[in-house]
């Protein structure tokens, strides 16, 4: 029986050694898996931080672009209001000129009644006064259009600058 006990003991020792080796190998595998998971988690955290930084940068650029666009639109609106006020003042001046021309034409008509020679001169004066009034209105209208065009060009130039700043941040 001692031979048999030795064999059983040897088998038990062998089984215990095998079990201990198996357990140790399992621990090593678990430790390696934990290291890989820790490395992957670190990479995921870094990637998430980079993504957040990029998103914040893009959001900042978009906010700045919106502010620039709003400022540009506000400037345009203010300039258009100034132009409209200028047009109203020009219209008032033109109306005054037309009244002055009309009264001058009336005086010319009165002078024309004195003599036949003055009639021709008075007619010319009336035609000239009418043309001057129309010309003043045309010039004022064209000047207003030029100012409006200049304001619109300024708006577009400001918008282009704001868009370039946004595109250069990308």
TrEMBL record:
<protein>
    <recommendedName>
        <fullName>DUF2514 domain-containing protein</fullName>
    </recommendedName>
</protein>
<feature type="signal peptide">
    <location>
        <begin position="1"/>
        <end position="24"/>
    </location>
</feature>
<keyword id="KW-0732">Signal</keyword>
């Amino acid at each position: 029986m001692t031979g048999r006990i030795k064999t059983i003991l040897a088998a038990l020792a062998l089984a215990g050694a095998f079990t201990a080796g198996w357990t140790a190998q399992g621990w090593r595998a678990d430790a390696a898996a934990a290291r890989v998971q820790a490395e992957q988690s670190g990479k995921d955290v870094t990637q998430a931080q980079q993504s957040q930084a990029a998103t914040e940068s893009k959001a900042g650029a978009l906010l700045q672009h919106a502010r620039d666009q709003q400022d540009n639109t506000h400037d345009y609106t203010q300039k258009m209001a100034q132009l409209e006020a200028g047009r109203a003042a020009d219209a008032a001046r033109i109306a005054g000129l037309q009244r002055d021309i009309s009264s001058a034409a009336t005086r010319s008509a009165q002078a024309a009644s004195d003599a036949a020679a003055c009639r021709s001169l008075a007619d010319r004066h009336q035609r000239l006064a009418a043309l001057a009034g129309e010309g003043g209105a045309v010039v004022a209208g064209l000047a207003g259009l030029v100012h409006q065009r200049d304001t619109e060009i300024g708006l577009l130039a400001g918008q282009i600058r704001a868009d370039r700043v946004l595109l250069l941040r990308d």
